[in-house]
Amino acid sequence: MALIDPFSRYKPLPLSRKRRGKLPSFRTMLLFFILFLGLLTSKTYLMNQFNYLKGIKYWHNGDLELAKAEFNKVLTRTPGDAKAVDGLGLVEMKAGHLDKSKALYDQAIKMGLGYSRKFNHLKTGQAFIDEGKYVEAELELQHALELQSTNPDIYIALGTVERALGQVNKGEKYYETALNYDPKNKKMQVLLEQARAEKDQGSISYIFDRNGVPLAIEFTKNGERGYPFGKECAHVIGYTDTQTINNRGTTGLEKIYQQYFPGNKLYLTLDSRIQRIISKAMGWQKGAIIVLNPRTGEILGCISQPTFTPEKVRDQWWNYFANKNIPLKNRAFESLYEPGSIIKIVSSAAAVEKNINLNTVFPLFCKGYTYIDNQIFYDWQKHKTIKTLEEAFDTSCNMAYAKLGMTLGEDVLLEYNNRFGFNSVPKTLNIPVTPGFSPKLGLTRYELAQSATGLGKSFRITPLNAALLVSAIADDGVMMSPYLVDKLTNINGKVLEENKPSVYKSTITRQTAQFLTTMMLNDVERGIGVKARVKGIKIAGKTGTSGSRDPNFHAWFISFAPSDNPKIAMAILCENGGTGKDVAAPIAKKIYEGISEIMDLTTEGGKK
Fold it and tell me: For residue 194, what is the domain's CATH number?
């Protein structure tokens, strides 16, 4: 009986030679083609993803050309890629080409762009808000809204942007829409209330004093600017002409920070109360007053006279422009004056630190004038016998300081003038500052005498420089860098720029500063600065009179108080006002009396 193989039916049939030679079937070829196409597509997809990631990385790092190259690689490989076009829009946005960016975003939408986490325009819009760039943020967020029309976070961000741009009504509507999508969001409710309050108020504040008091506002109805303290802060704040026809431009901090206004908030070191006090004390006198904190360099008050009304600059431009008293000029920072006797502080410091033999200078007899190099050198009065440096300082004797200058020499006087800020300008102020200058080398004996007494055509100082000079004495010989801007924040309060106290110059030793303080204190208590004296406040000061009698002298008084714990340093300049002792010193008295009502100038205490 033959054996039966149960698996024989499953054995493969042998192929004939003819069958082995046949090509793969159509189905097989189709399968291979699909697999190849899949691999090719997958490779293209992966390469595109790689280029997207590199492009975004370069974009974040600010390498915009490299980012553009990566997105263009995608378009070369896949010409209709909407995300690559969107990426190019991001590049143009960051480069500041907003029109190009908008056109690319519109193109990407037409090409079918959908939402992608890789290109999150809500996040980039919020990043622009953080930077205080609201026009860029608006474009980004509107594009984000095209991709996610129901995302409440986009509406919140847009509402904030519109408020920053002065479009409070639009901001309110965006907040209301966001609240419709997320009714329980408490943050949104707070923002909506803020927008409605701004709408009712009719204005947005954007410059503030150190206590948060508004100094500049924009009216939401017409975009015009307003200045609540008007003339009192005019030269520091400046003005902005928002009209396009016959535009009068912009000045002051308005000019320096114009790209940030009005959406961001600028906080100054100024105290609006001190501004009012010094403005009232100055009255109709022409000149300038600067008050600062000698320990930090913060400018607490700063006025220039005559002044102007910022809101009226456009309508009264030609009246201001043609006024011979130049009301638009910031005398505090830009005008130069002969310093006169306030320079005797510097000359005294040099005499002390160079340890010269004062017995070769004193005693001396002052008859009110002397001859130097066959030229008459005047004093302001006959002081008769001057026995000491302290007595020369108390009486402000020119004859004594002329002799002292000749003993010191021109190189020493130049050295100490430079130490006290002449021939240089601080870099911490944002508005224009004119550097003061002092006599250089190669002086005649007559010029040397003038140099020691702060006289002559080659000696000029700004009121700012004078305030810094006296602040250095108040701060034990350390001159702090002056600054006006405390910080700049975006609409949400994030700090964009901030200033901190920093040393400008180390002028003299602490011991020398204390010696000068004692002389300055005596000058007010019993010397020619007595008209600045205020009961209960220890004021250290020095008068100065410069210029010519025609039309009148310039009156100086520089001082600080309290002398044992200085909180205020001040320079007063009355242009063609008279003498320092009769005009500037009494103004200082009024100012110290006023400031003592808001700040304790007698003890270690603070504000009342």
Answer: 1.25.40.10
Regions of the chain where pLDDT drops below 70: 1-41, 603-608
pLDDT at 43: 72
125 domain-assigned: yes
Q: Examine residue 35 and state whether it is found in any structural domain, yes or no.
A: no
Distances (CA, A) of 366 to 339, 385, 414: 22, 6, 26
**CATH code of the domain covering residue 430:** 3.40.710.10
Note the Cα 182 to chain centre separation in Å.
40
What pLDDT shows up at residue 566? 97
| pLDDT, position 387 | 95
Give residue 398's pLDDT: 94
Residue owning tokens 């303080």: 517
pLDDT at 340: 96
Beta-strand ranges (E) seen in 296-432 are: 299-305, 364-366, 369-372, 375-378, 384-386
455 lies in some domain: yes
Give the total number of structural domains in the chain.
2
Instruction: Quote the tokens at residue 442.
Output: 């190669």
Which residues fall within 8 angstroms of residue 380, CB to CB, at 6 or more apart? 396, 398, 545, 579
* Dist CA 570 CA 589 (whole Å): 11
Q: Are strands 265-268 and 203-208 parallel, antiparallel or unpaired?
A: parallel
Domain of 352? 340-483+500-595
How is residue 460 annotated by DSSP?
Answer: B
Instruction: Write down how long the chain is.
Output: 608
How, if at all, do strands 364-366 and 265-268 pair? unpaired
The last residue of a domain, from among 143, 178, 200: 200
Comparing CA positions, the residue from 594, 522, 582, 526 lying closest to residue 557 is: 582
Q: Is 544 domain-assigned?
A: yes
Q: What is the DSSP string of 112-149?
A: T----STT-HHHHHHHHHHTT-HHHHHHHHHHHHHH-T
Cα 488 from chain centroid (whole Å):
8
Long-range contacts for 54-58 (Cβ within 8 Å, ≥24 apart)? 55/87, 56/87, 56/118, 56/119
Shortest CA distance to 524 belongs to which of 347, 401, 388, 393?
Answer: 393
User: How far apart, in whole angstroms, are the C-alpha atoms of residue 89 and residue 589?
Assistant: 63
Residue 603, amino acid: T
Most distant pair of Cα atoms in the chain: their distance: 161
Task: Determine the Cα–Cα distance for residues 398 and 39; give it in Å rounded to an integer.
Answer: 96
Of the residues 200, 226, 254, which one is the last residue of a structural domain?
200
pLDDT of 336-379, one tens digit each? 999 999 999 999 999 999 999 999 999 999 999 999 999 999 98
Determine the 3-state secondary structure of 311 from DSSP: helix
